Structure formats: structure tokens, C-alpha cells
Amino acid sequence: MKYIDEFRQKEAAQAIIKKIRSLSRKEVNIMEICGTHTHSISKYGIREALPENIRLISGPGCPVCVTSATDVNRIIEFSRTRKDAIIATFGDMMKVPGTDSSLQEEKARGADIRVVYSPLDSIEIARNNPDKEVVLFAVGFETTSPTVAATMLGAKEAGLRNFSALSLHKLTPPAMKALLDSGEIKIDGFIAPGHVTAIIGARAYGFLAEDYKSPCVVAGFEPIDALLGIYMLIRQFEEDRCAIEIEYDRVVTWEGNTRAQEVINEVFEPSDSLWRGIGNIPGSGLSFRQTYSEFDAEKRFSMPKGVDAEPKGCQCGSVLKGLITPDKCPLFAKACTPEFPIGPCMVSSEGTCAAWYKYRRIA
Amino acid sequence: MERDKTILLAHGSGGSYSRRLTEDVFAKAFDNPLLAPLNDQAVFCLPAKKLAFTTDSYVVKPIFFPGGDIGKLSVCGTINDLAVGGAEPVYLSASFIIEEGLSMDELKRVVDSMAKTARDAGVSIVTGDTKVVERGKGDKLFINTAGIGVIHGPELTPMNIRPGDKVVVSGTMGDHGIAIMTHREGIRMDSPIESDCAPLHTLAMDIISAAPTGVRAMRDPTRGGLATVLNEFAASSGCCISIREEDLPVKDAVRGACEILGFDPLYLANEGKLVVVVSSPEAKAALAAMRAHPLGKDAAIIGTVSDGPKGKVLLETSIGNTRIIDMLSGEQLPRIC
User: Fold this and answer.
1) How far is it, in rounded angstroms, from Cα A200 to Cα A193?
2) Could you tell me if the ipTM is greater than 0.90?
3) Out of 3.40.50.1820, 3.30.1330.10, 3.30.450.40, 2.60.120.260, which CATH number does the structure's domain B9-151 have?
4) One domain, residues A83 and A210
5) For residues A122 and A93, what is the distance between their CA atoms, to the nearest angstrom?
6) Does residue B189 carry a pLDDT above 80?
7) How far is A14 from chain B (nearest CA, A)?
8) pLDDT higher than 70, residue B69
9) Less crowded by CB within 10 Å, the N or C end of chain B?
């Protein structure tokens, strides 16, 4: 299959692995910041193929996982109190545990919660249910926010009066900065997310090289992309260089998708946002601009406050920051499994714990 | 209004409507001497051999899909559950739970499809039942079939699997799952993927004849796919099973659809494929027998049984590294069979 097989070739992959092995001398910690990378690295057994001096750390790259317990609790509380509301959300979000329930459980108890594949579908729900308030529980990174913004443009044009969204969108670069600033974990370089960067452009990571002397390579998601990205980072480490480089150049540019950026900027503006395990990160979220406030669920309703309590014993916060690997959590693969997940990292297919569970329990 | 154009609650009442439905639709299509008396039971003799008995319910949505329909699926599925135990399927039962409002035309199409599939496979549908539920309480049509088969040769069980054995699949993986998903979601493909839904008993018999002492275990990888079957094999035998991604037959169109939809062919349902574990010396003969059968022309040896980590299934990935294959958990697709 074109554009797939080329990037899964055994000979090429083994050749890159060999090059990495012969070149790499330094002890380095590389963080991948996208759930799809986490998944791909586990699925193709890449971690095991690398020499021991290269440590791959999974970062906060799964949109479902980084949504704070506070926000999950808020929407659950909202679904209990507003019987005239329909909540639209993405499938993975249904199972994410709040402190004592999940949207899936609330749905079973009678709340009207619907799974949408695209945010645009929620407009259709609003049209078909004029006597209900339709609220989109909008989570996601820069890959999702353009579609949600486009949905809002569509809702405004259609003059919808019963539609709003709870914007919990997250921005990637501020989270990378927050991780480095916290000093909790040593990160020598980043594998940056290919599709997020296709939207925001690789220039957005300039601060990493300039202010933090941290190399960064934007990589695609096929195994050869990931391997090549790691190789490019290793070369920078060994040559004592520090730059932002693009491996995924068949998709990613320095400027990004300017049209998508315009649509986001038309509807949203940067704001503070709560991340699970990390807390508030300044400028890492997107709130509605004044001109779109009629669609802002925060303004439209008095949204419940929600408590910030993780499920008991859950260590997803530490997993998301890369402080521990999933197998170090006492609940992993025992009380917490994909069938009965306790924390969000086990719920989402892009979650770090789910990837470890699915691909890495050999012994 | 034309009579009997739509299924009404009365068709499940047991009265004249039911009788007419049974005679005009079911008995007419399934036509065979054991069914003909329309008694509450079919009465027959079977040779004094070991028998196999199985049952399965079918709730697939939509009821018509590329390559098949719920009727064909309900006959093939039960035939296949018998076949993988080494049994020759003989008699089936068929029970229908119909939602009020289903068009008679759709029901007839399903029943005709069942009759044809059974006839082609050489089995008879000898008894059955019909119930009708109120509109909104079902989803068009659910079918349950049960089946009886006669075991002529050895009994097959995964407990017999041992290190050194080979793992063989009879063809491409994931066709049924992707056919249903793409059809249900309205995803148009350049070359539409058809379900592989087919009765596998003659293929199973051919394999057993070709490798009479070598066949250890056989399964049709339906819900949960190949990954789940291999995990069950590994768990019941206490062995390690290693397969190579490169050797796994998957149609290009299925791979393409998997990339778009985020599925893994290892976990997709099949309705016309076998996974067989055969002793190493007889593996080639089993493979040749499969390839000689019209339903096994893409058959391939995909892996071996080893002394490795007990109860685990390992995959050598396309790029040459190794990882485990877990059982399906969570992300299964609803109502595909």
C-alpha cells in the first residue's frame, strides 16, 4: 500500500536501528509528546530495539488522558442536573473515570449523552432537537480544535440557539515548556507530534532550542518515521547540536496550516487550562472569544465547579509527566485493565498504560 | 392494504397468521421431509457415533451487507462451529425474533438466503420457531440457529497443541469485520470489501483428511479475530505461539480501511476462515489441502508453537522487532455477527 509500506519496511527499519546503535554513546532521555507515537513505538517494539542508553519517555500526548478530573466531574455533574441537555462527546471520553462515575455510567442511568465521530455531527443533533440544549464536551489538541472552531462558525451561520461547547482544548508547546520548567524530570530532547505540527508549524518549537537547549524533531507515526526521528535526535546529541528538525516533511512545514490557524483564532483565544497530573498551565488552553460567547457553555450555564480528585490510587498524573512507566503503578494490569480502567491512561487507545498493557507484558 | 406485506404482532401470535407465515415462508423455503409435518419437534436417527451440538445467535446490523446477510451468516456460523470440532454438520434449527414492521419481502430474502446456503452445504433446517416483538423492541431481525453434527475422525482440542507445531490460516484476515464497518459507516471504497461468510465444513474435512494425525486444533476466528483465537490456544495449551506479521494474509483494501478506521486486522472478525494448528511434519500437507479448496486459496503458514513465555502470543512486527499480541479488550465493534 503506497505511503504505508515504504514506512514499514523491515530492511530499512533494521538499518536505521543499526545506525542508531553504532552512533549513540550518551545517556539520553527522549520524550514523545503524542499518544499516536506512544502507541506506534509500543506496537512495533521500537523501545526494545534501541540500546539501553536511549530512554523513551511517554509524555502528556493523549487528549482524553490530559483532561482533568475536575472537568470530567463538572460535565458529569452537569449531566445529572440539566435534564434538558444532550451532551455530545468523542467515544473515548465516555469511559474516562471522574472521581466516582463516568459519562458512560451516567448514560446508563438516563442522561442523554451521545458519541459523535466529528464535532460537526453535534450541529445535526442540535438541529434535530430544538427543545434541548446541546453541549459539545470539546477535548483535544491542535488537531481537533480547527474542526471544533469550524463547527462554531457553522453554528453561528445557521443561527443555532440551542448549541454550545465546553472548550477544554489543549495546546502542546506550553505543556512542553511547563514540563521543562518544573524540573521534575530530565528531558534531553523531544519527538514532536506530526499532526499537531502540521497545523501549528514547526516554528512553534523554536523556544525549545533557543531557551532550553533542547533538540526537537517533528516525526511521523509509521515505525520508520519514529525511528528516523530518534536517529535525527541522536545525531544532534552526539554532534552537540541543538535544533528543531522535521522528519515528517511529507506533511509538516515550518508555517503549518495557516487556514486552520485562522479558523482557530477567529473563534478561540489562548487561556489557562487544567491538565491532569500537571495542574494549571498558563496559556495552554483555548477559550471562546467575546464574539462567540453565545456558544460558550461556561457563560451560557452556571457550570458546576467540580472537585479535582483523582480516582483512588491512580497514578496517571505521574505517568503523564513521564515520572513513572505504567508498570510501576501498583494498579497496572491488576486492578486497572482496559476492561475495568481506573485511570484515563488505560481508557484511551492512545493512553500510555493501554499501549503498555496491550503490547508489553511479555514476562 | 395488501395482505402479509409487513410483519405484524399477529404473526407471532400462534394463530392463523403464524401458521400462514410458517407454511408460506419457512416451510416452503427450507422444504425437507423432517420439517414437513410441522410438528413441535423434528424426529430423526443418527449413526451411533460421537455427536457435536452447538448454538449461536445472530444480531448483525445491517441485516444485508456486501457478501452476505443475517440469514447466510446464521447458517454458516453454526455449520462452522460444528466443523471446527471435526464434525460433519447434519441438522440445524432456526429461531426468528422479528421486530414488528419488518417487510415480508426482507424476511423472505433472508429466509431464501438461509435455504440456499443450507442446501449448498448439504444440511437441513429441520425445526424452528418465530416470535414477533413490538416495534422499537428489536432491530428488524434476530436469528438463533443450533446444529448437530457427526464426528467421524479425531476430536480436536487445543490441549493437544505442543511446541514445534505450525499455525496455519486458510486465507485473508478481517474481511467480514471491514465489510460490515465500511458498509455501516457509509465509507465508499474503490473496490468494496465483501464479507467472507461461508460454510467451512468441507474445507475442514479436507484438512483433516490431508493431515489425519497432525491436526491438533481448529477454530474459526469470528468476534475477537485471530488474536483472540491464538490467545485461547496459548492459554489452554500452556505454550507460546509466535507469528510473523509479514506472513499474515490481509487484503490491501482491508489494510487500507484499517488505516483509516484505526483497526488492527488481528482483531477483526472473519466468517469464512479457519485457524489450524498442525504438527510440523504434516503442516505442508494441510497447507496444500487448504490451497486446493476454493475457500483456502490464500492459505499461509503464519507461525510456530514454541517453549517461549507460557500462554503468550508473540508477534514479529513488520519491521523485525517482537511484541506481544493481547486478547481483544474494549475496542470491539458492536453487532457484527
Assistant:
1) 10
2) no
3) 3.30.1330.10
4) yes
5) 15
6) no
7) 7
8) yes
9) N
**Contact status, residue B95 vs residue B143, Cβ threshold 8 Å:** yes
Domain-embedded: residue A362: no
Taking the C-alpha atoms of residue A94 and residue A114, their distance in angstroms, rounded to an integer, is 9
**CATH 3.90.650.10, chain B: domain bounds:** 158-324
* Same-domain pairing of A41 and A73: yes
DSSP letters of B2-61?
-TTSB--GGGGSSSHHHHHHIIIIIIHHH--TTTTT--SS------SSEEEEEEEEE--S
Distance in Å, alpha carbon of B218 to nearest chain A alpha carbon: 25
- Determine, for residues B331 and A4 on separate chains, whether the beta-carbon distance falls below 8 Å: no
The shortest C-alpha distance from B314 to chain A (Å) reads 8
What is the radius of gyration, based on Cα positions, of chain A? Answer: 21
Say whether A361 and B321 touch across the interface (CB within 8 A). no
- Our CA-based measurement puts residue A9 at a distance from the nearest CA of chain B, in whole angstroms, of 6
Q: Is the peptide bond before B62 cis (omega within 30 degrees of 0)?
A: yes
Whether residue A339 and residue B326 make contact (CB cut-off 8 A), yes or no, is no
Across the interface, of B255, B259, B323, the residue whose CB is closest to A43 is B323
Residue where a domain terminates, one of A308, A328, A349: A308
Would you call A8 and B318 a contact, using CB atoms and an 8 Å cutoff? yes
CATH architecture type of domain B158-324: Alpha-Beta Complex (3.90)
Same domain? A350 vs A303: no
CB neighbours of residue B92 within 10 Å: 27
Which residue segment(s) compose the domain that A179 sits in? 1-308
Q: In this structure, are residues B243 and B302 in contact, taking their beta carbons and an 8 Å threshold?
A: yes
CA distance B326 to B227: 7
The model's confidence at residue A350, banded by pLDDT at 50, 70 and 90, is confident
Q: What is the mean pLDDT of chain B?
A: 93
C-alpha cell at B69: 446477510
A187 plus A330 within the same structural domain: no
Number of domains comprising chain A: 2
What CA–CA distance (Å, rounded) separates B284 from B289?
9
Cβ of B331 within 8 Å of Cβ of A14? The answer is no
Q: Are B319 and A361 an interchain contact pair (Cβ–Cβ within 8 Å)?
A: no
**Chain B residue with minimal CA distance to A358?**
B326
Q: Say what the pLDDT of residue B320 is.
A: 86
Residues of chain B with CATH 3.30.1330.10: 9-151
Within a domain: residue A106?
A: yes
Confidence band (pLDDT; 50, 70, 90) for B1? very low
- What is the Cα–Cα distance from A230 to A54, expressed in whole angstroms? 9
Inter-chain CB pairs, A–B, below 8 Å:
67
Of B317, B319, B330, the CB nearest to A338: B330
Closest chain B CA to residue A48: B321
